Structure formats: structure tokens, C-alpha cells
Amino acid sequence: MLPQDQIDELKSLYPGLSLIKEAGIEYLLIPNLVLPTGCVPEKLNALLCPTPRDGYTSRLFFAQQVKGPHQLNWNANGVRIGEQNVTLKTLEQLTKRLKCKMSDIFE
């Protein structure tokens, strides 16, 4: 894991930063990370793995696919960490399509 002073520095940039532990590996959840101009989405949640993984010295995983003005290798496929898949927006879209109320889903 990162030294505490580096975690504190990240927290000063991302006040909602939190720690997630999955399969014995510690990740830093960075909420609402703002991406460079021209990227879609403009901001998203990201997970930073500050230790070696998949042949890299560190990895940054995005909650969504990122599309940018230039094709970059920013997206990992088939990686599930921290299970942050369902959002309120997703549930709202689902209820609209199913023509039901939110309470109908959770009965």
C-alpha cells in the first residue's frame, strides 16, 4: 500500500477517497475523477491499485468504458473489483423502461 503521506495527498485532491480491499489487495476508490477534455464520460469513479498487477507497477481501473479523442489503452475488460455496478441512474433507467416504480423492484 502507499505510504500514509501519499494517501493524505490524494485525499486532499479527492476528498471522497476511500480504501477497498478485495482478495487481499488494497485499492483506493477515487470518486468523480475528472478525465481530460474530450473524454466521455467527463468524470467517473476509478480504482487505483498502487501495487504491481497484470505486469504493470500500478493500475487505474475505471467504472465505465472511456472514449477519448485519441484511441488509448485505458479500458480493462472483464475486471470486477468492489462491485459498483448498479447506480441510482441505472435503476431509474430500468424502471422507466419496465414502466414500473422503484419500489416494485425491491418487493
List the helices and strands and how they pair.
Blueprint: H1 4-13, E1 18-22, E2 25-34, E3 43-49, E4 59-62, H2 88-98, H3 102-105
Question: Could you please describe the fold and organization of this structure?
Answer:
The structure is a single chain. The protein has 107 residues and is of the alpha+beta class. The protein has one domain (4-105). It is 23% helix and 24% strand. The protein has helices at 4-13, 88-98, 102-105; strands at 18-22, 25-34, 43-49, 59-62. Strands 1-2-3-4 form a four-stranded antiparallel β-sheet, with no helix packed on it. A hairpin with a 2-residue loop joins β1 and β2 (25-34). It starts with a helix and ends with a helix. The mean pLDDT is 80.
Low-pLDDT residue spans: none
Give the CA-based shape.
globular
| Helix/strand order | HEEEEHH
The structural domain count equals: 1
Distance between the termini: 41 Å
What features would you highlight for this structure?
about 110 residues, alpha+beta, about 25% helix
Q: In brief, what are we looking at here?
A:
The chain has 107 residues and is an alpha+beta fold. The chain has helices at residues 4-13, 88-98, 102-105, and strands at 18-22, 25-34, 43-49, 59-62. The mean pLDDT is 80.
